[in-house]
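In this supplementary section we document a worked example of the pipeline. Step one takes a protein sequence of length 337 as its only input; no multiple sequence alignment statistics are reported here. Step two produces a three-dimensional model, which step three serialises into structure tokens for compact storage. The input and output of this example are shown verbatim.
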Amino acid sequence: MRKHFTAYSILLIAACAVTFPGEIRAQQLPQFSQYMLNPYVINPAASSMHQDVDLAMGFRQQWTGFDGAPQTYYVGGTVNIGRKPQAQGLAYGIPISNRKMMSSGITERKSKHVVGGLAAVDEYGLFQRSSVMASYAYHHPIGEKYYLAAGTSMGWYGMNFGAGNAILENPNDNTFNDFIANGTRANLFDINAGLMFYSDRLFAGYSVYQIGENQIELGNAATPAGLSETRLAVHHFAMAGYRFTLSENLDLTPSTIFKLRGPAPPSFDINVRADYAERVFFGLSYRYEDAVSVLAGLHINDWLRVGYAYDYLTSQINNLSSGSHEIVLGVRFDRKN
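The serialised model returned by step three reads:
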């Protein structure tokens, strides 16, 4: 059904969309269920943690069946440009098909310097947000097993308001026309930062995004909706997990992520993932007052992996949507390979 709106209601929806894209709780950044498969998308320090080259691309369709629901596409990767450690058989990465190599000893552990980049597009309703970010992270060895990493990413955000898709009751409405005459695009620069403490079993990290809180200068600031007065909100993420070995072929990894997004109430996910023979994994996730997710994935070989997540919505929007879908394809390998 096509609905016709007044100019003011269109601009009010636009202001809400800029402030609350993706979720009613003031989320300005995309939601991810498969964050364990590619933690770099929410923490610039989580870069090439286990192998020198870590590449990934992903797609998320949120709220399937809901007209104008958010969609996210991204592609990115990180590369360790630091010196290789001197090891007996094992460098940073553990070939997933050879569990016995986990006992190989490293004679000298080196710090890692990792560079990376991420390009993403988020579409929600009349809006599209594009971003291109570059990152650097320093990983310092601690003891025989652990690394502490600090990273930052910075780059460009582009906001676009699809005025051509708006259907007005009065096509000649001066309020709307004055607004779009002042521009339907906005360009912003911002910076993110993160910390990561990890080993081959443990990970714990914290990151903060949109530190600059830049103003979104979109359209005419004099319009009643006040769209140009909105700003990027600071987002905080904290995550942790540990992998337990239950048998020769079965590992279990419980994890959690805590999210604080601007003026919104705090939110958290609780997850558990089981890896069989380091080839196949299955998992469950609960997102507070939002969704229950089923996770699955396959390590096709020692360097190629794919993961899928389905979110069953537990919020009131469940009546309008059949759930959310997310897929991630990743490549990991060491430079020597």
